[in-house]
Amino acid sequence: MLPRGRPRALGAAALLLLLLLIGFFLFGGDVECERGERGGERRGPGSFPCPLTPRVSADGRPRGAAAVDGDPSADRGGRNRSDCVPPRPPLPKCELLHVAIVCAGHNSSRDLVTLVKSVLFYRKNPLHFHLVTDAMARNILEMLFHTWMVPAVRVSFYDAEELKPQVSWIPNKHYSGLYGLMKLVLPAALPPELARVIVLDTDVTFASDIAELWALFAHFSDEQVIGLVENQSDWYLGNLWRNHRPWPALGRGFNTGVILLRLDRLRQAGWGQMWKLTATRELLTLPATSLADQDIFNAVIKEHPGLVQPLPCVWNVQLSDHTLAERCYSEASDLKVIHWNSPKKLRVKNKHVEYFRNLYLTFLEYDGNLLRRELFGCPSPPAAEAEQVQRALAQLDEEDACFEFRQQRLTVHRVHVTFLPHEPPPPRPHDVTLVAQLSMDRLQMLEALCRHWPGPMSLALYLTDAEAQQFLRFVEASAVLSARQNVAYHVVYREGPLYPVNQLRNVALAQALTPYVFLSDIDFLPAYSLYDDLRASIEQLKLGSERRAALVVPAFETLHYRFSFPSSKAEVLALLDSGLLYTFRYHEWPQGHAPTDYARWREAQTPYRVQWAADYEPYVVVPRDCPRYDPRFVGFGWNKVAHIVELDAQEYELLVLPEAFTIHLPHGPSLDISRFRSSPTYRDCLQAVKDEFHQDLSRRYGAAALKYLTALRQPRSPA
Amino acid sequence: MLPRGRPRALGAAALLLLLLLIGFFLFGGDVECERGERGGERRGPGSFPCPLTPRVSADGRPRGAAAVDGDPSADRGGRNRSDCVPPRPPLPKCELLHVAIVCAGHNSSRDLVTLVKSVLFYRKNPLHFHLVTDAMARNILEMLFHTWMVPAVRVSFYDAEELKPQVSWIPNKHYSGLYGLMKLVLPAALPPELARVIVLDTDVTFASDIAELWALFAHFSDEQVIGLVENQSDWYLGNLWRNHRPWPALGRGFNTGVILLRLDRLRQAGWGQMWKLTATRELLTLPATSLADQDIFNAVIKEHPGLVQPLPCVWNVQLSDHTLAERCYSEASDLKVIHWNSPKKLRVKNKHVEYFRNLYLTFLEYDGNLLRRELFGCPSPPAAEAEQVQRALAQLDEEDACFEFRQQRLTVHRVHVTFLPHEPPPPRPHDVTLVAQLSMDRLQMLEALCRHWPGPMSLALYLTDAEAQQFLRFVEASAVLSARQNVAYHVVYREGPLYPVNQLRNVALAQALTPYVFLSDIDFLPAYSLYDDLRASIEQLKLGSERRAALVVPAFETLHYRFSFPSSKAEVLALLDSGLLYTFRYHEWPQGHAPTDYARWREAQTPYRVQWAADYEPYVVVPRDCPRYDPRFVGFGWNKVAHIVELDAQEYELLVLPEAFTIHLPHGPSLDISRFRSSPTYRDCLQAVKDEFHQDLSRRYGAAALKYLTALRQPRSPA
After folding, report:
1. pLDDT in tens, A504-556
2. InterPro entries from the entry (chains A, B) (predicted)?
């Protein structure tokens, strides 16, 4: 309960602290403070300065916490920071720690992932993340955590939209907009039974166990409700330029990148009223906040200094040129949390920034799958889906020659949808999304694809965490790709030896937002006019509710490296005739596309129906709610055929479009394909999987499935 | 000083220890042992059990250390392991820690790198590595550490060959051979002024700061000379099979994967004699060691139990199925060091192994460049080369549009030569090594190249640490590549935005071991007979000391994806005539190879001389001591031209071989090339670099360089 009479309360607080300090230094021994020095030795690993010890400044500069630690005698002559270290914080074993983060948009979502990776790397406690998100971030993070399945991690989402009214009245010049004000409403927004929470900005990276930070709650006096590290820039000193008027703060003020909140006490103290009162008053004379909620926190603290427990600077090392920050990390041997609040570009000359950069890069590129490990000594029940997967995996026979196939099929890949900023396309009645999947070695195709297809795309990329960063840089460096807002890239994180081609297609398909989809492959460039033509055809043919059909886009290939893309059907025919173009896989596997009846296509001027035949795998346009691809087909071989079988079994008409075409460009075999084809068990396992697929078909379609079984049994030349 | 009269000394030691133990538990407080429990709370981060507390075994099983900790009263009723924790070890700030590792061969060298990465990740102290190596490991590791330039790391090498005589008399059944016995001779081999050292096996991974391990030296009594963790298998209990006779040991014995050695005391105690005596005696009844030096250490310790200080099990968690190891890590919350001494394959069902695997993979794939950071608070002078590089980098102008070019040129890349097992080719007078460079996207070419060229190859691969592991698996999975012993792969670790093509070529060139080299590119497949033909031509033409020349292998290209490789010059001519083959880059940049005079080549039956012309960049065979490639050319463009200019300036004759040919296969543009060509400053910077190159030429060759300058200035169509 915060005292009403402030000066008296401050005095009482100061006296209490004085007594505590005296108590520490007289009787402390190993009860509160641990001496880090023995016989001249100066440093022990893991020691860090007592938060209550005022920092020794050579210039006697007043510190933000001066009003709290008012007693200079606490700084006993000559004792320096390494003298006094808090006791190793005694947390209850496996205590659940709570972390709250405000996160909006695609870019912050990526930053949050890096932050979470760094937290997970060092943590030994179960964690509960409370994420205040906009719709985009929620979409991404919900899917990500769901597929990540990290043991002993729980995630709750809070809708930022609902909280906006509470802060929308505050003018904010900071680029974070309304989201930058939301930490203020956390005591109200978070569950009332939640007493304590650590609040983090997304641009923070951990270099230590978050339990050590949580343990600092133990140092709060009864009045203290918020733990913060001093701000390491001169902003709040107000002398940066001539008319610089920052919000009020104690000395340098505090930085809100890392916050310890006693939610229970804040609520009891009427926090909601408190900050609104302060903000309203300040806004009478200041036009807006410049640093979002940090300004308001500092103004409140200026009024009520007893609220704040200053934290050691190592818990929020703010990247800046300022000597204050450098003093923090030149004295401390342990940096705990790095805060990337500097816009400076990192050049090789600044060696401290090199250290930070390396730490950040470590987690940026760190394989998130490696963080799925159990907590030792804190067994927690696995999530339901995780348990299901584990059970299924446990049933696999390790000696089975096709073990890898079956294991890959059961693998739940971590998925980060809309990895890059993406604008959902405006709703249009016959709109089509191009759906495809790829990995690093096909990034080259993206620019060409963008030139050929102006419409929306949903692309699944099978990447490692490190490759995802390369991909990010690739898109940022490409003018063509950066300009496109309607191409959605979904990263599916690599795991397992075999290429989960149909799982990738299903991710891209599920993320498509238009009523129709064009199911393509990454090595094909569609006709320049295809996007428009397809929408016209969809409308004419009344594809969808009135007509269950799959529109076939005839597929061709060129073997020539230098190839002038045809701009009309007539040019396609000319190229076919001159041998510069072939129907797709004409030489090795004509049955893949022969049922398209290219001879008829030459002459056709209206769409015509074709019949399903064995091994037919055309590229089709279907309504988005079509059957999914069958994920039992991993690696390569038959993964599209099975889908067309499914469409045919569900009585989709196969209609070939007379003006449409798509052309395959030559490319070297991918590493994944080579690896797959060199596997000795490939053929046998593919056959086993096909058989299982057909058994499924029989179960689901009864007699109608007979046609496919018969076709399967017919001998034909191998792929 | 070890007592001469052993029983009496043992008694004295035990009494002393007893007194010390009593002292600890009565007066210790925070002087020696820190209580980890307060009010029911059981665990604090970083706590670990006192090494001197006998481990509580429910079954009363005797422990290896029984003879040392003979006093059961040390185990005060009901006190369990978490009660007693040693004090945070107070190391002098920035104390230099010494680590010794025995490492022989290519595979152990890779393991050592992973171990070192894990040590560097957590360390805060300067380190000095003492590496006992064979010639291959020395070759690799010397270059690696030299190019790695990690601050505050020093490396000394000790020749295993010289130490072999000291152990070669010991029969050893373990696969490690003589190298597995060398830890025994470390007190003699390491510098006499070195008092303490940590000794590690290469299959060990750190999960903590090595300073904590070093600090355990403080727990040695005056007699103790060696710190070890108990062996976590039943091997030394001797009951594994019917006639199983292990070497003598105390109980379960100790595992020598992690050792603390007091070298000073060992030498004083006459360690050399001591172990030899013991080994000789045991070898009277045992045929050989089974576990190499571990057997001998255990036998000595059995005789002199007072020598050993048992270390907590967390410092050497040995992967095995045994309950003993599981008890170690199910009770401890902190595993410090993982020892991969299990041959078991890792399947998804064993969740503890999953934890270990993830830790191991973390460091296996960790970007070693990120470990180049300075130590905070322990400034150390950079190595001379590092300082030079830093100074040069500091002189660069960040605002220079070509900053990236210049920075890339100065970048010292970490290099791991002979990444995979490699047999140096036997010396042959006219032998030629094919030299090329590549990155991940060209791995496909390797098998084809191996089929075309049976001779030695030296290939530089530009990879990240993670890609290097993929590459390793790729080669292991390929029958063709695994079979070849004369292909040397050198990994140059990626760093910087631009492709350091000439630095890569120089690495491959420097590592070639034959008197001649064929300077090729990865996308070219040489004629099947080229290897034999070149050696014949080299001999005939007396290439080398008698004749300074570069033998030109004419270059062609096919644009066709399906291409039947010609097996003779006649077939090449036929393909040229039918338009399935072209001279290389015939369409876009004919001047690159036109001076080869293909018209003359058609008819030629003997080698003929050609003249240098602007932009000429043929593929040549030269003596190995030819000029290096100029590293200022990064990215793409002119990097081979400059080299040919250099050859010509040094008056190498250009002789075209009449029967030789090499053919370029089509491939998509690499990510690196796309990135490069999309850079807006590319052309300007390339021109700037060319100009500097020519200025250099003028300086070195005077008037003779005029010809190149003139050629440079002539207008011609751009690439």
Report:
1. 999 999 999 999 999 999 999 999 999 999 999 999 999 987 889 999 999 99
2. Glyco_trans_8, Nucleotide-diphossugar_trans, Xyl/GlcA_transferase
Q: Are A267 and A275 in contact (CB under 8 A)?
A: no
Higher-confidence position of A402 and B256: B256
Does residue A414 have a pLDDT over 90? yes
Integer Rg of chain A from CA: 31
State the Cα–Cα distance between residues A522 and A163, nearest whole angstrom: 42
Whole-number Å distance between alpha carbons of A52 and A17: 9
Q: Are B614 and B690 in contact (CB under 8 A)?
A: no
Q: How far apart are CA B586 and CA B593, in angstroms?
A: 8
A377 Cα to chain B: minimum distance (Å): 6
The shortest CB-CB distance from A93 to any of B43, B209, B329 is to B43
Q: Which residues of B touch A29 (CB under 8 A)?
A: 29-30
Residue A12 has pLDDT above 60, yes or no: no
Q: Per the structure block, which two tokens stand in for A537?
A: 């055809």
Contact A463, A471 (CB under 8 A): yes
Distance CA A12, CA A29 (A): 26
**Beta-bridge mates of residue B437:** B460
The distance of Cα B634 from the centroid of its chain, to the nearest Å, equals 25
Q: How confident is the model at residue B389 (pLDDT cuts 50, 70, 90)?
A: confident
Least confident segment among A57-71, B263-277, B593-607: A57-71
Mean pLDDT of chain A: 84
- Cα dihedral B595, B601, B605, B610 in deg (nearest 10): -10
Strands B608-610, B653-656: pairing is antiparallel
Q: Are B314 and B230 in contact (CB under 8 A)?
A: no
| Of the partner residues A45, A367, A376, the one whose CB lies closest to the CB of residue B88 | A45
Sign of the four-CA dihedral A202, A207, A208, A212: negative
Q: Of A537, A427, A437, which is closest to residue A486 (Cα–Cα)?
A: A427
In B, which residues are within 8 Å of A347 by CB distance?
A: 398
DSSP state of A218: G
B546 and A CB contact within 8 Å? no
- A585 half-sphere exposure, CB direction, 13 A CA radius: 14
Which residues in B72-110 are b (16+ Cβ under 10 Å) and which e?
eebeeeeeebbbbbbbbbbbeebeebbbbbbbbbbebbb
Give the C-alpha separation, A447 to A444, whole Å.
Answer: 7
Domains of chain B: 97-316 (3.90.550.10), 415-713 (3.90.550.10)
E strand intervals along B571-615? 582-583, 608-610
Q: Tokens for B337, please give them.
A: 């060091």
| A-B C-beta contacts closer than 8 Å | 193
- Are B183 and B259 in contact by the 8 Å Cβ rule? The answer is yes
Asked whether B694 and B709 are in contact (CB, 8 A), the reply is: yes
User: Closest chain B residue to A476 measured between Cα atoms?
Assistant: B675
Dihedral-angle region of residue A336 (phi above 0 means left; psi in -120 to 50 means alpha; beta otherwise): alpha
Q: What is the pTM of this model?
A: 0.79
Residue A13's pLDDT is 56
**Cβ neighbour number for residue B111 with a 10 Å cutoff:** 20
Are A214 and A29 a contacting pair, CB within 8 Å? no
The interface pTM score, or ipTM, of the predicted complex is 0.71
- Predicted pLDDT of residue A616: 96
- Asked if B308 contacts B227 with a C-beta cutoff of 8 angstroms, the reply is yes
Task: Work out the pLDDT band at B529, boundaries 50, 70, 90.
Answer: very high
* Token reading at B253: 């014995």
Question: Nearest by CB to A355, which of B42, B374, B667?
Answer: B374
Q: Quick check: B199 and B311 in contact, CB under 8 A?
A: no
The single-letter DSSP state of residue B596 is G
